[in-house]
Design brief:
Largest sheet: 3 strands, antiparallel
Number of strands: 3
Helix content: 55-70%
Order of helices and strands: HEHEEHH
Strand content: 5-15%
Radius of gyration: 14 Å
Distance between the termini: 47 Å
Strand order of the largest sheet: 1-3-2
Length: 81
């Protein structure tokens, strides 16, 4: 078993709708977050920092939040800056 296979085995399993799984996988790859996803297998993500956890939460939140929740979040970001 190579290093990436070992990491995939020990990564955290993210329970997500199979239709959204590849979209999340691609976004995590763009963020350079180690993750693996195979056909008929769950998405696995290596979460080794708080920043990684927040980024994962943000990516998942964009898929699960309502439009109104996303608008409110954006407005809070604008007020904070």
């Amino acid at each position: 078993m190579n290093q990436s296979e070992q990491a995939a085995k020990f990564g955290e399993i993210v329970e997500i709708n199979w239709l959204d799984r590849w979209q999340v996988y691609r976004r995590l790859q763009e963020l350079d977050i180690p993750c693996w996803c195979a056909t008929d297998e769950p998405l696995r993500v290596v979460i080794n920092t708080a920043i990684t956890a927040v980024q994962l939460q943000s990516v998942l939140g964009q898929l699960t939040a309502s439009r109104q929740e996303l608008v409110q979040w954006l407005e809070r970001c604008w007020l904070a800056s």
